[in-house]
Design a protein that fits this description.
single chain, 12 helices, mainly alpha, Tetracycline Repressor, domain 2
Length: about 300
C-alpha cells in the first residue's frame, strides 16, 4: 500500500515548487456546476473585496483543538491587475484550455491589455496554480463554515473531503489532462507538489489527525496516493455524475485506512530497500519482492 501510494504520488504526476501563491484579494470565479454550486460561491469580477485568511482560532470540524493556518508558508501575491486577469481567465479554460489564449481573453473581459500576459513568468502554470490555490481556500472555507463531518467515521470524512475537492474540477475535466501536464513540467513540479501536500495536510487536520514522526509522513503519503489515483481515474470516468469515481475513492480509502498495517509495511519497505541500495538494481528489486511477499502479494490501490 505504502509502496504504491508513494509511487502514484511522486512518480506518475511528477509533482513538486519553488513557491506557493497567496490567494489575491480578489476571489476568482470558479465555474459553477451541479457539483461546485454546493461548494463555491462566486463573486463578481468587477467588485474588489478584501480576502481575509481563515481565522487561526476556528475549531476543526471534529471539535478537536484549533485550526492553525499560520504554519503555512506565505504565498506570493499577484499584482491587482494580474489577479483580475487570472480570475477572469478561468471562465475561458473549458473552451481554450490552460493557455495564454485563455489568459488574453480574461484580460479583455476585465478591460486590461492582453500584453499583461507577458508579465507572468510561467504563464499557463500561473493559471493552474491560481486555480489550485483557490480550490484549497474554498475547501478550507467550507470546512470552517461547518462542513458536516462530525457524524462520520474518519474514513468517511476523508472520502467526503476528497470528493468535495475533486468536484471543483468537474467543469474543467476535459482540459484537466493539460493541467496535469503543466504541473509535471520541471519548472512547475515543486509548486505542484507543495500545493498537493498542503491539501493533504489540510484534509488530515480536518479529520482530527494528530500523528507525528513516521506516522505523520506515512499517513500523508498514503492519502496523497489515494487523491492522485482517484484524480487520474476520474479523467476516464464516463459514468453518470462520476458515480464510478466516488465508488473507486471509497474503496481506496477503505483499503488504505488500516494505518497500523501501513506503517509496519513502510518500515519493512525501508528496511528491505535500504539493504538493496548500494549493491545493484537486482538488489533493489529483491527488496521490493521481499516487501510484496510479506504482504502476501496483495496490492492496496
Amino acid at each position: 500500500m505504502y509502496r504504491t501510494a508513494a509511487k502514484r504520488l511522486l512518480g506518475a504526476g511528477g509533482l513538486t515548487t519553488t513557491r506557493l501563491l497567496r490567494l489575491p484579494k480578489l476571489r476568482s470565479t470558479i465555474i459553477p456546476s451541479s457539483y461546485t454550486s454546493r461548494l463555491c460561491t462566486s463573486s463578481s469580477l468587477g467588485n474588489q473585496s478584501d480576502h481575509t485568511a481563515a481565522s487561526s482560532s476556528s475549531s476543526t470540524a471534529t471539535g478537536e483543538g484549533t485550526r492553525r493556518h499560520e504554519g503555512r508558508k506565505p504565498r506570493a501575491e499577484f499584482q491587482e491587475e494580474q489577479a483580475r486577469v487570472l480570475a477572469a481567465s478561468l471562465r475561458h479554460v473549458p473552451r481554450l484550455g490552460w493557455t495564454e489564449e485563455a489568459m488574453m481573453a480574461g484580460s479583455r473581459d476585465v478591460g486590461v491589455s492582453p500584453s499583461i500576459v507577458g508579465s507572468f513568468s510561467r504563464k499557463e502554470a500561473a493559471l493552474v496554480e491560481y486555480f489550485m490555490d483557490e480550490c484549497l481556500q474554498l475547501l478550507i472555507d467550507r470546512i470552517d463554515s461547518g462542513l458536516d463531518l462530525q457524524n462520520l467515521i474518519p474514513s468517511e470524512r476523508i472520502s467526503k473531503l476528497i470528493r468535495n475537492r475533486l468536484e471543483m474540477q468537474v467543469p474543467y475535466m476535459s482540459k484537466w489532462p493539460q493541467a496535469l501536464s503543466i504541473q509535471a513540467h520541471p519548472m512547475n513540479v515543486a509548486t505542484s507538489f507543495k500545493q498537493r501536500a498542503m491539501l493533504v495536510d489540510e484534509i488530515w487536520h480536518a479529520v482530527g489527525d494528530g500523528a507525528s514522526d513516521l506516522d505523520w509522513y506515512v499517513k500523508r503519503t498514503i492519502l496523497g496516493g489515494v487523491y492522485s489515483t482517484t484524480e487520474i481515474y476520474m479523467l476516464s470516468d464516463d459514468s453518470l455524475e462520476y458515480r464510478d469515481t466516488w465508488a473507486f475513492l471509497n474503496d481506496r480509502v477503505k483499503d488504505a485506512f488500516d494505518l497500523k498495517k501501513s506503517i509496519q509495511e513502510a518500515k519493512y519497505f525501508a528496511e528491505d530497500i535500504g539493504a538493496g541500495v548500494g549493491k545493484s538494481v537486482q538488489g533493489l528489486m529483491n527488496g521490493v519482492i521481499q516487501t510484496m511477499s510479506r504482504r502476501g502479494g496483495s496490492t492496496a490501490f
